[in-house]
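hey so u asked for the seq, here:
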Amino acid sequence: MRLLAISDLHIGHPENRAYADALAPADPDDWLIVAGDVGEVFADVGFVLASLANRFARVIWAPGNHELWTLPSDPVAVRGVARYEALVKVCRRFGVLTPEDEFPVWTGPGGPVTVAPLCTLYDYSFGPGRATTADPKAAALAAAGGRYVVRAQKIISLDGTAPQRFVLIAFDSVEKAQAWSDSAATKEVTAARMKSTDSLSFIVEGFAN
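ran it, structure tokens below
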């Protein structure tokens, strides 16, 4: 019996899906840790985890960022924490352990070992003052004189539908904001974001008190 681990299956690629379908224990008591990035489509993630749970004695899942994305083409449109909670429900239906369950203890060879899957959502509170010019995105922002004013994860709607995330960046002029937006580093990030999220970005000219 063995305690095994795998990550980054990315089953959206056919060859990866075939590999996941072929995963099998050498011993009926083998455990498998699935350490994130199974895929991006909700139903696919649930199907693969359920299939693995049918083959291995115990499957333990820790989410990656890809499971928590909500692609425009995904029929399951829940986002953020609601998506994570929905995936946890699917896992519990098929006996897959998650960060929300009691940590299991492996008592096989090399044990006892406590397996502690974690879900740590993005927290940008650590960010200000720590970015360096070694990061091309941070360098582009610094070169344009931009600074983060708001990077909010929790938004309370007073009227209308609030976005799930909101970022406000201040520049000294419209020209500097436009230069930052037109930089190669920013365009690369924007292109990646638009593939995986529904988002808006715009420049607002005004004055700060």
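The chain has two domains: 3-114, 124-196. The CA atoms of residues 43 and 168 lie 34 Å apart.
lmk if thats what u needed
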